[in-house]
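Narrative of activities, Objective 1.

The group set out to show that a structural description can be obtained from nothing but a protein's sequence at a throughput compatible with the screening campaign. Below is one input-output pair from the validation batch, recorded exactly as produced.
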Amino acid sequence: MAANSPTDLLIELEIPLGGFDEPTGNKDVISVELTAKGMTNPMRAKATINYTNLN
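Output recorded for this entry:
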């Protein structure tokens, strides 16, 4: 999340398959907010998954 401090995080997610009636494209799957003592602005990041249609 930042290049100037060690913020390595490992998170495992299980993402369900998209249904036939769901649109394809990017969908948010997780949002992370990192705060620390003395930090005035928390660092935020989102991860997305790109659902595609395999024909």
